[in-house]
Specification:
The complex is a heterodimer of chains A (233) and B (619).
Chain A: E1 2-11, E2 14-24, E3 29-33, H1 40-47, E4 55-60, E5 63-64, H2 70-75, E6 78-81, H3 93-100, H4 108-117, H5 119-123, H6 134-147, E7 152-156, H7 164-179, E8 183-187, H8 191-197, E9 200-205, E10 208-213, H9 215-220, H10 222-228
Parallel strand pairs in A: 3-8, 3-9, 6-7, 7-8
Antiparallel strand pairs in A: 1-2, 1-4, 4-5, 9-10
Helix pairs in contact in A: 3-6
Chain B: H1 9-31, H2 35-61, H3 68-83, H4 86-92, H5 98-101, H6 107-129, H7 137-154, H8 156-159, H9 174-192, H10 195-205, H11 207-212, H12 217-243, H13 253-266, H14 271-292, E1 295-297, E2 301-303, H15 309-324, H16 367-371, E3 377-387, E4 390-401, E5 405-409, H17 416-423, E6 431-436, E7 439-440, H18 446-451, E8 454-456, H19 469-479, H20 484-497, H21 513-525, E9 531-535, H22 543-560, E10 563-567, H23 571-577, E11 580-585, E12 588-593, H24 595-600, H25 602-609, H26 611-618
Parallel strand pairs in B: 5-10, 5-11, 8-9, 9-10
Antiparallel strand pairs in B: 1-2, 3-4, 3-6, 6-7, 11-12
Classes of the chains: A alpha/beta (233), B alpha/beta (619).
Chain lengths: 233, 619
Amino acid sequence: MLELREMKVAYGGVEVVHGVDLSLAEGEVVGMIGPNGAGKSSVLRAVCGLVRPSAGEVLFEGCVLNGMAPERIARLGLALVPEGRHVFKTLTVAENLRLGGWRNGEGAAAMEQTLERFPILGARAGEHADRLSGGEQQQLAIARALLGQPRLLILDEPSLGLAPKTIDLIYELLEGLREEGTTMLLVEQNAARTIDFCDRCLVLGGGRVRAQGGREELRGDSELLRTYLGGQP
Amino acid sequence: MSGVGLRSRSSLVVSLLVPLGLIALTVAIGASGTPSLQSTVTMILCNLIVVLGLQVFIGNSGVYSFGQLGFASVGAYAAALLTLPAAFAALQTPGLPDLIATAQLGPLLSTLIAAAVCGLLAAVVGLPLMRTSTLAIPISTFAFLIVVYNVLANWDAVSGGSSGLVSVPRTTSIESAGLWAAAAVVVALAFKWSARGYRLQATREDEVAARSLGISVMGERLIAFALSGVLCGIGGALAVHQSGVLNPTTFYFAATVTTVTMLVLGGARSVFGAVLGAVAVASVNEVLRGVEDGAHLLGLLSIGRTPGLAAIGVGLILLATMIAMPSGLTGGREAGELSWFRRLPSPRVPAIRAARAIDYRIGGSIDQAADGVAGGSLQAEGVSVAFGGLQVLRGVDLKLPRGEALGLIGPNGAGKTTLVNVLSGFLAPDAGTVSLDDADVSGRSPTHLARAGLSRTFQAALPFPHLSGLESVAVGAMGVGVDRRRAVAVAAEVLTRLGMHEQAALPAGSLPPASQRLLGVARALATGPSYLLLDEPAAGLSELEGEELTSILRGVIEDFGCGILLIEHEMSVVMSLCPRVQVIDDGVTLRVGSPAEIQADPAVVEAYLGSSYLTAANA
């Protein structure tokens, strides 16, 4: 579904991603982990069109995304849940959700389904988004992305700045989405959690893919994890 | 610490010489031409000084002022009236006091007096104007421009009214205009790279973060506004002594649009941009104006008279440039920072890693950190805050002694950040008090608290994107009144200690998010705080980096004896750094205790940690 071929990213002539390959099949959940500055966010930014890859190709269903504007990429069905959530703060929860689905007509059924999945959003539908706690805003950001009925859901650090208990809740929601077959590309700092959650993970370091594999393979390679991620897997 | 500068010597020399060279080239071309070309070029140089005046305020503050041409107008009138021959003065401005009417000063003295008048006027006018908000300043300064115009147009007896003044002595030569322009470049660069200039640039980059460093936004803007007034006044004075005629519209709407355009086209943050923009727009304008009157191109193509071509052409070129280069021709960089000169060495920060404690006895309030009240503490008592109908904090107490780390944890929305906002002066509590070393500081401004030794970071990194890492951190020390040289030394030490010396030369905006957050910690440390409030510094760090941060913070406590309040969700960091942890939930304190007590408390597990944390911790 999504394929990166030798993709490189540079900012002002300084290359930070030195050729990353990745292929993601429909229904797969793939994670990217690695230290701060490894290039994870740059890869996501390039996929979503926020920065143009300096070399290589980004393909979505065979269609080349290089140089395409972010909004056109979004219309193809790639939805980004950005780091820091970026909800529309001065609009209400309901307005945020309506905007998420603005291209899908009335979508009353989809809205109902969303509110079922995220009951807290239903309870606070009339409130301004900036009144929501961080965890609630993260749910709103995910729900807003889902209402665009994306083919691929991209999540950038969904647990950033959230309390441990809230992170559990977010991952329960994501688990639900996975069971329904949602294709996801996930960037996270918490290596252990990401390896557990994803079908497959890429370990990035210094702008390159240092290792990849499923849960068992990565967990077994404790030396690699210590080198690039620290902590105990 | 000698040898550490904010930029390398070669970069500095290039940044200075390139704009000066461009001015010299302009003078040389003009001086070799016809008298009409000479006067055209002289006028371009006068305008250039006005554009540099705009750069000093707009470029460094990031706030647009549309009133600066008012100062050019006042400067021009002042200089004209002081030099007008007595016979013409009696004819044109009968109401002028004799002293001025018969003054007939020379060009230099009249220009200096005009500059002083404009500087004073800008300081007085700026006092109320700079109090208005960032969004209101463009409008309030524009109103000032209109007031100046109306006074000059209607004060017939003194200003000559709307018909203006003629027969003003034409004493500005192309060489003298060039010298004044060169001096203006030096002044603008010296200001930009002074401690004051950096403090003002910090307010441009992020107003909230700048205030947290003790920088007075209004005060710094006012000083630049006055300096800008001086430069604009000089430009106006020289211009009237070039053209010999003056009326209230000379420096009004059209001139405002032209000069602001020149600044934006060149790149407002850059002094070189101001020079380049002024010369480029004026040159294109002159060429097109030549074509307007009909011209032959290469003897092949003949163009008839096309009035309006110059204005349309300049407009189109401006549009194309802004689409292709949104930050202007220079991208807001000085000549020595441009990529043509990329091979110039970056400023070097020595790679000693935490070899010694930062010398905090380096002046001003920073002494407090080392010598201050032993056993002092930052205390909150009974703090309550409500937003509209929503009660966010209800009577929270908190005590942070010096030399200790206190963890502050709780669910999202519990009120942790609100409490830090109260402690750091960004939010006045509805009830309760905050005291700093036993002095009541409730309701004092962030600027005041930062100077009293309280520093903080933010959940969002709030970087100064266009300043380098070293500059960003040095601004922290400058904000509490440390001079520039010492501030740079402190910044270099802090960055080295945080292991960020390799990133010191890069623009802060180009760093990954977690590094930006760490840079915020460095910036706060450079103020030499007695108390440091950190809002989620480990967010986005990997576990390994989190461990490094913990040991850095431990070193900070040991070496500087400051108290650290740590808001953090990464439990490994909180539990290993903080001997005491306070849990708040729904605006009240749920529990204060040791990490072990907290982790064992069922109420804390229920409200915050979640049962999976227990499972993981026991495994």
